[in-house]
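Why should sequence recovery work at all? Because a backbone constrains its sequence more than one might expect. Tight turns favour small or flexible residues, buried strands favour hydrophobic ones, and helices have their own preferences. The token representation captures these environments compactly. In the example below, the structure is given first.
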């Protein structure tokens, strides 16, 4: 466990957009579940073994100090690092970098979160990265700062808003939770010290807009930690009230990797997007959502259920599309969902196909794999990476292959009449339910979960 390792909580925000709700309180003291937001941060840190906490405060810092004191009531040791004026998320830390440990975790005081901090910390330790950034899909990617990373989870680019309307991006958002190596930040501190000498005061500096892009440009290793655990800023009244509702419904409390989660597995072609050709979609230009699909996914998001897409894409093995083509398709899929305030937590896809004889086929992908449905390699990987409870999970698809996959993995199954509508005839199996489309499938699942919750 992290033990005595250090957490920095950036709690200096003014909360201008929340002033009607805050009154004279500093933003991190806004109540959630009857307790200040910052109190949730301390309890989360303590639960995961982080007991040294530096609170970076500015506006109404004395209110925070009076409430929390030295932190003994929460089982932690608090230090207060007070800004005379706002310096930006990175600027505050850089100005007091000498007070920080060689490796430390950063949390934002205006986000509500429930994250397995120990797992995040250990992943960073194993990686050797200069920084690890907690990333996640959210329900408003079009006005969020997005991150791009490669197949090894190394961050390659930052796309700050506003975004190019002619480009599709993966819904992967910098959520404001980091593990940082002090050594990687020292050159920025030196720059700020030089600025102070020439201009008397350094300029504002932000982690997401200034520090991390500069580290990537320098070739530093920044690790992306993609997780569906709950983290949400409360910076506007609408977002604050939504977070409060999620807390009151118990969704935040069960969202951490510490708790195995039910999931809804979705087939892609014919279930979520329109079926175009018998071979599949070669270009993102062909990809279109089935009417009502985005709204159905949004309903699952609101219920706090994990959503995982699992799709066979033999078109790659057949030589009719590349891995980059599939990635562009999925970027478009996530963009289209994001426009409807919907998102999927993860997309897994299989490029293999065992049958040979296609012009331009790729021999290395013509294999009998463990990931091609109805085998359950993608399901098992999702369960392992996202800590899923398969006994309480569902599979929705338009083919008997999807139904057989559900049976092989121990999932309940729903067959939709869109796409192939179960007429592929590949497997002699019956789904648990047959409905018209994804909307009907989601209604059935939410009804079943409501019944199940009522029996507890």
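From this structural description, the recovered sequence reads:
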């Amino acid at each position: 466990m992290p033990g005595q390792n250090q957490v920095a909580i950036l709690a200096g925000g003014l909360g201008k957009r929340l002033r009607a709700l805050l009154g004279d309180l500093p933003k991190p003291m806004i109540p959630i579940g009857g307790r200040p937001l910052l109190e949730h941060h301390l309890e989360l840190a303590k639960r995961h073994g982080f007991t040294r906490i530096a609170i970076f405060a500015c506006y109404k810092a004395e209110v925070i100090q009076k409430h929390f004191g030295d932190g003994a009531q929460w089982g932690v040791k608090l230090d207060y690092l007070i800004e005379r004026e706002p310096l930006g998320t990175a600027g505050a830390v850089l100005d007091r970098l000498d007070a920080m440990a060689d490796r430390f975790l950063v949390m934002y005081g205006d986000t509500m979160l429930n994250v397995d901090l120990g797992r995040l910390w250990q992943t960073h330790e194993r990686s050797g990265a200069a920084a690890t950034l907690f990333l996640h899909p959210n329900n408003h990617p079009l006005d969020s700062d997005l991150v791009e990373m490669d197949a090894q989870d190394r961050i390659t680019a930052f796309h700050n808003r506003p975004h190019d309307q002619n480009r599709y991006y993966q819904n992967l958002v910098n959520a404001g939770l980091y593990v940082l190596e002090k050594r990687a930040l020292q050159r920025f501190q030196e720059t700020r010290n030089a600025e102070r000498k020439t201009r008397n005061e350094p300029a504002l500096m932000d982690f997401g807009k200034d520090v991390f892009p500069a580290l990537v440009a320098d070739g530093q290793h920044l690790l992306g930690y993609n997780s569906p655990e709950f983290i949400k800023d409360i910076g506007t009244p609408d977002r604050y009230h939504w977070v409060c509702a999620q807390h009151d419904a118990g969704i935040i409390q069960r969202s951490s990797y510490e708790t195995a989660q039910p999931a809804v597995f979705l087939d892609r072609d014919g279930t979520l997007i329109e079926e175009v050709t018998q071979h599949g979609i070669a270009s993102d230009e062909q990809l279109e959502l089935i009417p009502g699909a985005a709204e159905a996914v949004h309903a699952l998001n609101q219920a706090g259920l994990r959503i995982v897409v699992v799709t066979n894409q033999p078109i790659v093995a057949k030589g009719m599309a590349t891995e980059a083509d599939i990635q562009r398709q999925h970027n478009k899929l996530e963009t289209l969902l994001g426009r409807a305030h919907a998102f999927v937590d993860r997309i897994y896809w299989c490029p293999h196909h065992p049958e040979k004889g296609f012009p331009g086929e790729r021999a290395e992908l013509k294999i009998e794999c463990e990931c091609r449905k109805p085998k359950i390699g993608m399901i098992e990987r999702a369960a392992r990476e996202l800590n899923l409870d398969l006994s309480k999970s569902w599979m929705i698809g338009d083919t008997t292959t999807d139904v057989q996959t559900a049976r092989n993995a121990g999932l309940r199954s729903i067959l939709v009449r869109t796409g192939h509508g179960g007429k592929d005839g590949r497997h002699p199996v019956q789904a648990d339910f047959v409905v018209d489309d994804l909307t009907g499938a989601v209604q059935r699942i939410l009804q079943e979960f409501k019944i199940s919750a009522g029996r507890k």
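A few observations help interpret the result. The CA atoms of residues 273 and 290 lie 5 Å apart.
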